[in-house]
Amino acid sequence: MKKMQAGKFIYHVAEPGEKTGKTVLLYHGWGGTAGSWQAYAEELAKQGHRAVVPEIAYNDSRNPVANPFEMETVQIYFWKAIIESIEEFGEFREALGVPESDIVLVGSSMGGFIASGIFARYPEIAGLASINGSGAFVLTEQLFRERQDRSPLRKEEAELLNGFDPMQQGAGTGAVLLINGEQDRTVPLEGHAAYYRHLLESRNTGYTDRKIVKGAGHQFTREMEQEVADWLAGIK
Fold it and tell me: Which residues form the AB hydrolase-1 domain (predicted)?
């Protein structure tokens, strides 16, 4: 991958020899790096896609936080990174110089939250693949807090998340693939389940599928990678 910069945006690109597919934006998980996508980005480039990996706020070289997996740090910055990534997408797309209809969003873990939030705001985007993420922000945060024995969401906190929650917005007509590891203990599977129902109920068109990978936990497995690659091949 080649590292690029446009204004405040830092991103990495794997260019195909001949572009026959889409511009695929790959969003990594909390505490991850753009470099974690390198092998997969290069594989997608071989299949004719232009693979773009944005560096995410508070990760990589964009004001990274210290000790990202400490619980207090996660509680402060996890949603901030998601919300800022959603808010800046329009400007980032313009920096890339590609139309919405050429873009497919692929995200893993936190990246799946980001990709789902962007997809809900930009109806012409061609597709969304969320792996071990969630498209039900308020529900998932409520479940996080229950697991951690934390106080419920305050009204103002819920209102903030509702403003970005894909469950509260339209869903476009692009293809959607939601994947969960059956044994994921990090992000509750209920988030994808609720978002899947929302998509089926609110969309008259657009391919929508959800897959549960048996025996898998909270990781982007080789089987999942292949599922996404096969799904991408069907998006025109």
Answer: 23-134
